Please model this.
Amino acid sequence: MGNLEVIDFLQVVPRNKAPQEEEEEEEEEEEEEEEEEEEEEEEEEEEEEEEEEEEEEEEEEEVDLT
Model:
């Protein structure tokens, strides 16, 4: 029985390490996804600002015509 306990202990150690590595990888992936989402949001905001500026310019041109 004594040998089996040691073997069980040795088998448990690698299993405990693997989930930690998986968690770290998952955290890194989540961080990357969050960064990508933030970049997409920034791009969308920039596009909206550009559209608003274009609309304002068009309105100014219309006012000039009258």
